[in-house]
Amino acid sequence: MHEFRITPVSAPLAKAQRDKITAFWESENAQVTNPEKRLEEVAYCAHTEDGKLIALCSYHLGRGIYNELPLYFMRVFVAKDYRQTLLAFNLLAHLAESLADEAKGNLIAKGVGVAAILETDIVKNRGTIECCRTFQFPINKRPLTFMLTGYTPKGSPEYCHFFERVINSSKQHNNGEKHSSDSLTYSALRRVIPGQNSSLDASIASFLAKERQLELESAQAYLQQKIIYIRHDDEAIITLGLLAPKFLPEINATLFGLNLVAASEEVHRINSGASSFIEDIFSDMNVRHSGKLEEAVGLYNLHSGKTSLPLINSHTRFHFQGLDDEGRELRIRYFDGAKLVV
């Protein structure tokens, strides 16, 4: 069993520390393009019990590949003999925790989260990647979840973890989702299979035609090939959830687009229960996800513009993915255990 200790590095580095790190890079044939800059970015080092340097972790402030958010990009370099251990993740855990502590309650924090990019060679050897990665070491106060958020031009996946209580402070365009009390009583979630109940099919088509001001035939056509969820009250449909699979090039994967349609005469009431409806839909779809690589890996929704929602919505757990070419805000939530072929 490998024994090591992890310690923080205080800037500026003493000459002896700089020489030790430089010698470590040379002994491990590390390809460091700008050694002086990298030395300034080192935050944690790992040593064996006898003081031998075996790994280090550094970071720099940059912009997310797709979400374009200010993030602290973390890099780890581990000695060859220790690359089959959890040392790299342990170093990342230490750095992520310290950066999160700095950002907590700090309204002028430069970064809203941390990001890590898996090296292309590692990805190729694995063949698949996880859409979410969660780990917790003793240093962490709570589990850290990193979500797949994009790819580098070389195809290396980028993962982000957003700091707690840090919100997307960009200009508000619309609120997107409203969450007051979810204490209202609704019927249980119902998944509808078209063709099994002609009366219910007709009611759903009529509801959609009325709320979206469509011709009945157009509403019926729109419902084709959709996964349908409803919530009703006193036999009247009050919320309709429609899902359809779509390939998203930003993730290089297929996800189900979620579209909610609420009864117009009860908009305030529906908005207060929207988050629970979304959560119920996700839970049901998540249970049905078998983990096969060819399946959709989660749900997404599009908002008409930039919202003021937190980067991770505490009600629905959808995270901010970025803006599309039309300025619409894309939010995603992955199924548990979802993986992609790379």
Report on the structure:
This protein has 342 residues and is α+β, with helices and mostly antiparallel strands. The protein has two domains: 4-162, 3-Layer(aba) Sandwich (Aminopeptidase), CATH 3.40.630; 190-341, 3-Layer(aba) Sandwich (Aminopeptidase), CATH 3.40.630.30. Helices cover 26% and strands 32% of the residues. It contains seven helices and 17 strands. The strands form three sheets. Strands 1-2-3-4-5-9-8-7 form an eight-stranded mixed sheet, sandwiched between helices. A seven-stranded mixed sheet has the order 10-11-12-13-14-16-15, with helices on both faces. A two-stranded antiparallel ribbon has the order 6-17. α5 (198-211) packs across α6. The longest helix is centred in the C-terminal third of the chain and has 22 residues, at 267-288. The radius of gyration is 24 Å and the shape is elongated. The two termini are 32 Å apart. The model is unreliable at 166-184 (pLDDT under 50). It comes from Candidatus Seongchinamella marina.
Which architecture name of the largest domain does CATH use? Answer: 3-Layer(aba) Sandwich
**Tally of separate domains:** 2
Q: What is the CATH C-level name of the largest domain?
A: Alpha Beta
Share of helix, binned: 25-40%
Protein name: N-acetyltransferase domain-containing protein
Question: What are the salient characteristics of this protein?
Answer:
Aminopeptidase; 342 residues; eight-stranded mixed beta sheet; seven-stranded mixed beta sheet; single chain
Short description:
The protein is α+β, with helices and mostly antiparallel strands.
